[in-house]
UniProtKB/TrEMBL annotation:
<feature type="domain" description="Peptidase M14">
    <location>
        <begin position="31"/>
        <end position="308"/>
    </location>
</feature>
<dbReference type="GO" id="GO:0004181">
    <property type="term" value="F:metallocarboxypeptidase activity"/>
</dbReference>
<dbReference type="InterPro" id="IPR055438">
    <property type="entry name" value="AstE_AspA_cat"/>
</dbReference>
<dbReference type="Pfam" id="PF24827">
    <property type="entry name" value="AstE_AspA_cat"/>
</dbReference>
<comment type="similarity">
    <text>Belongs to the peptidase M14 family.</text>
</comment>
<protein>
    <submittedName>
        <fullName>Peptidase</fullName>
    </submittedName>
</protein>
<dbReference type="GO" id="GO:0016788">
    <property type="term" value="F:hydrolase activity, acting on ester bonds"/>
</dbReference>
<dbReference type="GO" id="GO:0008270">
    <property type="term" value="F:zinc ion binding"/>
</dbReference>
<dbReference type="InterPro" id="IPR000834">
    <property type="entry name" value="Peptidase_M14"/>
</dbReference>
<keyword id="KW-0378">Hydrolase</keyword>
<dbReference type="GO" id="GO:0006508">
    <property type="term" value="P:proteolysis"/>
</dbReference>
<keyword id="KW-0862">Zinc</keyword>
<keyword id="KW-0479">Metal-binding</keyword>
């Protein structure tokens, strides 16, 4: 971990990383949990109830990191399609476990009503190392584009692209953690040769809407559902959440497409990024998972009602 008072331990302050620094950083990332045990074993069980799609393998270790998605067995092209993604940042645990929990406990309610496509762990290398980046120090969630520098993003892009215009709703499940401030943002500044500017981590759940195509009623429906499970983040003294103006309770906006974020990869009318705060003393890991499930179900319910 880094801290605010000392330089990041890799690289030279003010100079972007070269290949040698990237390699040094990658070597320092150690496996801390099992993708096979936590994700693939659950996917195998879910494959009895959903169509299983293996949409790629990570070149860094193809045998260890197949990429999995699950979709409705009763897929019907006349029904609206809903996309759920988790683990784009591998360290954001409730995004992965929330996507799996949704499939286990809540997805059956949409049989015959919607087509579901769920990619629960987009970045398995990062999942095992509790890391934001992939092995090449690339952020997959700034890489959803043609000729992507992230194999994780490129594989999901290829899977989703044929359906891009038909997806009605896309919810991308994330977390904001204390390590964003102590490790990941300092690492980003060091990688890019820029000074680190300390920020403030919001205490609570919030959403990221699309600046270019905002859907305030949709975002509010998700916030209201999650508020029954865990607390919603409040704005800081500047009226912001992580440097962006809060436009409604628990909601900020980013230009999702321009930033090449996962939530901006489709033409879905309804799209959002969830941000759970697992480090709060006011919540716990189980509540964070349930908050993600509540967000997914509320998002689908709203999109179905609006499409009726």
């Amino acid at each position: 971990m880094s801290n605010h008072s000392s330089p990041y331990p890799i690289g030279t302050p003010g100079k972007p990383w070269r290949e040698s620094e990237v390699s040094e950083w990658s070597r320092q990332q150690t496996v801390q949990r099992s993708y096979a045990d936590d994700v693939q074993s659950v996917v195998e069980q879910l494959a009895k109830r959903f169509d299983h799609i293996q949409y790629g393998r990570l070149a860094v270790d193809p045998a260890r990191y197949p990429l999995h998605a699950l979709r409705s067995q009763d897929w019907n092209d006349t029904l609206p399609t809903m996309l759920v993604t988790g683990g784009v940042h591998g360290y954001e645990t409730s995004g992965v476990l929330g996507a799996l929990r949704f499939l286990e406990e809540a997805a059956a309610a949409y049989d015959g009503r919607a087509n579901l496509l769920v990619a629960p762990c987009v970045s398995p290398w990062g999942y095992e190392r509790i890391q934001r980046w992939n092995h090449a120090a690339v952020d997959p969630n700034r890489s959803f584009c043609d000729n992507s520098p992230s194999q994780e993003a490129a594989a999901l892009w290829a899977l989703v692209r044929p359906l891009r215009a038909r997806i009605v709703m896309h919810i991308d499940l994330h977390e904001t953690t204390d390590t964003d401030e102590t490790e990941f943002r300092p690492a980003l500044a060091a990688r890019d040769g820029k000074p680190f500017e300390p920020g403030e981590i919001p205490d609570g759940f919030y959403l990221v809407d699309d600046t270019e195509r905002p859907q305030p009623a949709f975002q509010n429906a998700v916030i209201q559902a999650v508020a029954a499970v865990t607390h919603i983040a409040e704005a800081d003294a500047q009226g912001e959440i992580i440097g962006s103006p809060m436009v409604a309770p628990g909601v900020i906006r980013y230009p999702l497409g321009a930033l090449q974020l996962c939530a901006g990869m489709t033409d879905a009318r309804y799209r959002t990024t969830t941000e759970v705060y697992p480090d709060s003393p006011r919540t716990d890991a189980e509540a964070c998972i349930r908050a993600q499930v509540a967000a997914v179900t509320a998002a689908i319910d709203f999109a179905l009602a609006a499409s009726a």
